[in-house]
Amino acid sequence: AAKTGGRGQHKVFHRLLDIAARERVLLLAQLRQALVRNEFLLHYQPRVRPVDGAIDSAEALIRWQHPEHGLLNPGAFIEAAEAGGLIDEIGLWVLDAACAQIAAWRRQGLALGRVSVNVSPRQLASGELVAQVRDTLARHQVPPQALELEVTESLLVGDARAACAQLGELRSWGVTVALDDFGTGYSSMATLRQLPIDVMKIDRAFVTDLGHDPGAMAIASAIVAMARSLRLHLVAEGIETPAQAAILRDMGCDELQGFFYSRPLPPEAFHLLPRHLVPEASPSQWAGLAP
Ligand code: C2E
Ligand code: MG
Ligand code: MG
Ligand code: MG
Q: ipTM higher than 0.85?
């Protein structure tokens, strides 16, 4: 009886695997269609300079207007896109859409210092990123200084030399490179020092417990000190409370990003944000703009 039960369980298990596999295939087919049907869009989240509250830059974050499921966050599809070999094409779409938006904003007189775009390690591994960025900037007549690329430590997993060489070339034109989600990876200080980056983004994980956890304070101030000594521009992400904003401002973070200031917004709403978001002001002042 035990044997039959075991086989039965096996069957159920296989059926579940089948379903999971079929769902993955379906998702990939839908993602391919999404590219053709132009169902992706970018939202923009401001980065605020705490010394004067100015919005000097923004991060572009992909969304998918799914025909049945509505507006989806990247958590629902980016991993599948990476695994299914679609991230190069999607990444190129993101680059193009962000540069088109930068150009449109510049024409409308909204000149942000920089807009950052998330780049998957696979895009670097393909070896085509440098040419793609060059062509896209040229097509939209966007100066390289207006673009920032966010990469993660996982780029070191593949051919780290080749990835760093590409980033180095992009930086030589004036494109800046940010290390995203800092603190969640495994880089040693030695590798960190050699990475071709301009900006470090402290992961939200270290921001969340600020204000009530002395351990979190200690780690955050150590990261700030490290960024300082490596002469990196420091951005903290995931700021949700005025206390977190005040602490990170006082520690010397260059820019702050998080729901406290604004959620990621469609470009039309981003354009309507006040040019300065003072840390002390109530977020409800612009909450009405959220989608
Ligand atoms: P990320 O690059 O670390 O982006 C920050 C994420 O944190 C965004 O989630 C943002 O909406 C969210 N966030 C910002 N402030 C707060 C806050 O105060 N509290 C909380 N709880 N969350 C906050 P999102 O847009 O869902 O993106 C998730 C991740 O998906 C991104 O993490 C990035 O790794 C990836 N991603 C987004 N857009 C792209 C893209 O165009 N290409 C690639 N390859 N990956 C992307
Ligand atoms: Mg990012
Ligand atoms: Mg991040
Ligand atoms: Mg992240």
A: yes
